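Researcher: Before we compare anything, I want clean individual predictions. No alignment, no superposition, just each chain on its own. First chain goes here; please echo the sequence and then give the structure tokens.
Model: Echoing the first chain and its structure:
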Amino acid sequence: MIAADASDSFAAADHARRAQAFADAVARACAQDGAERTLDKPLSNLFRDRAVKARGLPAGDLVHVLDVDVANGWVDVEGMTPYDALVEATLPHGVMPRVVPQLKSITVGGAVAGIGIEATSFRHGLVHETVLEMDVALPDGRIVTCTPHNDHADLFAGMPNSYGTLGYATRLRIETMPVKNHV
């Protein structure tokens, strides 16, 4: 189930537990030599057949919009939240993400890890160019917050187009913009 209500205080309060459970699963998978590391998710945006060899990492709980800060122009969202749920959660606050992919089921973390090339904006750039910070689950089970200017700036810069090879985004803070009632 996608939690589209950013006022869901339970989702925000429980985020750290859910994110750490996922990071622990990442660490267990990475400790197994030769283990395939894919995400176990209900939707895929691949337009070709793909044989599933093994169950993937349990990322299905990381689907919540955690906070919408209208005054500062950002939204905190978990990595597996699809853009349709994110837009649904932000519109009641009078804002939306600066860049939205055309495929509704693309996840926020997936758009960054896969660069979301179909979602460019001539004004705001690519999806990853609207990310202010992200929490990333690393192969050893740690979760680090990376920004363009902290000790993990190299990870922040490397996440776009990494396809999960460096880690998985469990939380992203992305820029929003005000919307009008009609165009």
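Researcher: Okay. Second chain, same rules.
Model: Second chain and its structure:
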Amino acid sequence: MDVEYGQYSVILLVEGFPPSHAGTITVYEDSQPGTLNDFLGAMTEDDARPEALRRFELMVEEAARHAEEAKKNAGEAETSARNAGISAGQAEKSAVNAETSAGDASESARQATESAASAKQSEDASSSSASAAAQKASESSQSAAEAELSRKTAESAAGNASRDATTAAEKARESAESAQSAEQSRIAAEDAVNRIPPW
């Protein structure tokens, strides 16, 4: 709407900051028609207020940007920490599987030894016992291979857990730095408001 002639007190309201009196606008009967924003942004020879307002708005935008970066980095740090926990769980599970496979390999080797002894004691059953011994030896070899595979899987999962934990720590550090920058920008914005002289 167009502004009627008279005097208008301008109060600057920014979320997160106390109200600040920006000045008084005087509209005369012969003033050019316009809105309050038009008169507020109009620059005169004796008025440096619009430039001060622009600097203040830039400070507010910078504070908001730092706050958004801090929020984003905090979310990434949380995700990395969660991934680190998942990788650690996988590493523990793989380690248990490796231990189980190693136990199976030991048991198969023991059974292979017993089968070989039985084959040696009985000539009549030597062929059958030798076959059983060979089967147990094959099972022992397979169990040993499974144990080695599980061990490598556990090492890989442990490496992933370590990398995810490092990433989580880095993101947490970046989040803290962004939060600190946001706080510094907010303080600077408040100082800028306080330095604006009253009209």
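Researcher: What stands out in the second chain?
Model: Strands lie at 6-12, 20-27. Additionally, DSSP finds three helices and two strands in the chain.
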